[in-house]
Amino acid sequence: MVSGLLVTLLLSFRPETPVLIGSFAYIACTGAIFAGFILSVRREMETVLEQLSEMIQGLIYRRDKEILSVTEDTLLSKLQSQVIQLTGILSVQKERYLKENREIKSLISDISHQLKTPLANLAMYSSLLDDPEISPDKRSEFTRRLKSQTDKLAWLLNSLIKLSRLESGIISIETEAKDLGNTVLAAIKQAFPAAENKNLTIEWRGGQGLVLPHDAKWTTEAIYNVIDNAIKYTDSGGNIIITLTGYDLFARIDIADNGQGISPEELNDIFKRFHRGTNAREAEGVGLGLYLTRKIITGQGGYIKTASEPGSGSTFSLFLPLDGLRVNSSQD
Predict the structure, then answer these.
(1) Nearest to residue 271, comparing CAs of 310, 220, 229, 209?
(2) Among residues 264, 246, 175, 173, which one has the least CA distance to residue 206?
(3) What is the b/e burial string over 226-263, where b = at least 16 CB atoms within 10 angstroms of the residue's CB?
C-alpha cells in the first residue's frame, strides 16, 4: 500500500518518474540478490565451520573419522588432510619423547643399582679400617680391597660417562678415512698388558692399508671392549686371534678366543646394558663393554655377529661399511 502511494506521488510530480521507478526497482532487485548471496555465503561458512569444528573435535579425541572425502578437491578437504598429517607428526614426536623418557628413567635406575654395591663396599672397608685393633695383615687386606673397589667405581663412572655422552648426543661419532688396521692395532696395544698379566697370547692376522671412513677413537674403544671381554673369560695360557678382512661392501674384524664360551640362551642378551652372564661372577666388569661396542659399531652403519660354544670359545665379528674404500697398493 505504501509502495503504491509512493509510485502515485512520483507519477503526479515529475514526468521522468518512470525512470526513477526503474532505477529504484533495479536497486531493490540488486540489493535482494546481494542479501541472498550474503545469506548463502553465511550459511556455507557456518557449514564449513561446523565441519571444521567436528574434524578438530574428532582429532582431539583421536577418532580417525574423515569428515570430508579425500577425493574432494576443496580447500577444506586439503585443510583436513594437512591437519591429519600434522596430528600424525605430533603423535610420532610424542611417542619419541615418551620413549626417550622411559630410556632415561631406565638408565638412571640401572646406574643407581650399579653404584650401590661398590659404594656400600667402600663404606664397609673404610669402617673396618677405622678399627684400631685389627691385625696388620687384615689391615693390608682391607686396604687392597678398598683400592680394588675404588678402581672399579672409577672404571664404572668412566664407562657411564662414555655411555651417557653417546646416548645423549653430546659426543657424536664422526667418521674419517683412516687405516682400519692401525685402529685395530691401537686396541690390541691397549689390551696387551691385561693379556700379558694373564699369560694369554694375542695373535694379529690382519694387515694395514685397508682405509675406510670410521671414527678411529670410538672404533678403538669398541674393538678393545671385545678383546677385553675375551681376556676376562679365557683361562691362563689361552689364545686370542684377531683377523681383519676386506669384502665388497664391508670390512670384517674377527676376534676369536678359546675361552669359556657363551650359552645359546645368553647370546641374545650379551649386548644389553649391564648384562652379565652366568659365568661372569669371577670376572671384573659391570656389563657395559659389549653394549658400548654395539652402540659404536651400529652408529657407523655396521653390525655385529657372534658365534660361541660353551667350553670351546667365542668369535665376535664386527662389520663396518666400506663407503669410500681406498686400498694402499704399496702395502699389498
Answers:
(1) 229
(2) 246
(3) bbbbbbbbbeeebbbbbbbebeeebbebbbbbbbbbbe
Estimate the share of the chain in helix, then strand, then coil, as percent rounded to the nearest 5: 60, 15, 25
Q: What number does CATH give the domain 98-168?
A: 1.10.287.130
pLDDT at 67: 53
- Give the CATH number of domain 177-331; options: 3.30.565.10, 3.40.50.970, 3.40.50.720, 3.40.50.1820: 3.30.565.10
pTM attached to this predicted model: 0.60
Q: What does the block give as the cell for 86?
A: 600434522
Is the pLDDT at 315 greater than 80, yes or no?
yes
Q: Using CA atoms, how far apart are residues 287 and 293, in angstroms rounded to an integer?
A: 11
Locate the domains of the chain by residue range. Answer: 98-168, 177-331
Q: CA 76, CA 67: separation in Å to the nearest integer?
A: 10
167-220 per-position pLDDT tens digit: 666 567 888 999 999 999 999 999 999 999 999 999 998 877 889 999 999 999
- Quickly count: other Cβ atoms within 10 Å of residue 172's Cβ: 10
16 pLDDT band, cuts 50/70/90, is low
Q: Give the angle subtended at the CA of 116 by the CAs of 115 and 120, to the nearest 5°.
A: 120
Residue with more model confidence, 11 or 63: 63
Place of cell 654395591: 117
Q: What average pLDDT score do residues 302-317 get?
A: 91
Helix (H, G, I), strand (E, B) or coil at 131: coil
On the question of pLDDT at 99 being above 50, the answer is yes
Q: Find residue 314's DSSP bridge partners.
A: 308
- Measured in whole angstroms, the distance separating CA 209 from the mean position of its chain's CA atoms is 33
